[in-house]
Design goal:
about 230 residues; alpha+beta; Glutaredoxin; 2 domains; six-stranded mixed beta sheet; 9 strands
Length: about 230
């Protein structure tokens, strides 16, 4: 994600960014290249995978309609072994590891739509992503679900551009994450006229309208499926 405004003019290696860790829907703030070993150890190695069971309660069990943030990560951190300083990157002095502690927070969105927008190798994704984003906004706003990069209201659908995910010939590529349901659905060949059905059936219900033509992959952690 873009660096915070106060860091726009910092040197490239010192510019921090926000990292979104999936499928735990965890945001890690102010991450620089020097923080990568800590990021991997605390949030990626200790985080849930596509095959680990969902550990947070459902909305019905909790009663307030919100899913607690990164329960699995917090539980894993309590039992994880401390990192071996000698195995960390040479770019991260031991003193930095002792002084630095990344902070995290839950991603407020209930759903995420990631659109491949890479265009330096093949322009097709770069051309299609803005069109799909505009169409997604058109259908999500009347439902009160549209969220942009700076909108942290609880729930809703966050829409982000991402870089190359492989398969330009399948453009437009779209990845949909559904937090409470523990699902990820990877679609291909998405066109603007498909967006209304994708919002109604895929984003909100977890169903694929045209699996034979559009489904590239995905997982369902609630059902324990590692391929769709």
């Amino acid at each position: 994600m873009p660096p915070p405004p106060e860091f726009y003019h910092a040197e490239a290696g010192a510019q921090p960014t926000t990292v979104l860790v999936l499928p735990s829907f965890t945001l890690v703030d102010l991450v620089t290249p020097y923080d990568i070993p800590e990021l991997i150890h605390r949030f990626i190695d200790a985080g849930p995978t596509t095959t680990t069971p969902l550990m947070f309660p459902t909305v019905e069990q909790q009663g307030d309609g919100e899913v607690p943030p990164a329960v699995e990560i917090e539980q894993a951190e309590q039992t994880a072994e401390p990192p071996d300083i000698e195995t960390l990157s040479d770019a991260l002095p031991a003193i930095l590891l002792s002084e630095r502690k990344l902070s995290s927070r839950p991603c407020a969105h209930a759903y995420l739509v990631l659109l491949c927008s890479q265009k330096t190798r093949d322009v097709r994704c770069g051309q299609s992503a803005p069109l799909l984003r505009r169409e997604l906004e058109r259908h999500l706003r009347p439902l009160g679900l549209y969220r942009d990069l700076d909108d942290e209201r609880p729930g809703g659908v966050g829409i982000y551009f991402i870089s190359h995910v492989g398969g330009h010939k399948y453009s437009a590529n779209m990845m949909i994450y559904r937090k409470e349901e523990g699902q990820a659905i990877w679609l291909a060949r998405v066109r603007p006229e498909h967006i209304e059905g994708i919002v109604k059936h895929t984003v909100l219900q977890g169903k694929v309208v045209h699996p034979d033509r559009q489904l590239r992959g995905g997982f369902d952690r609630r059902k324990g499926l590692i391929s769709w």
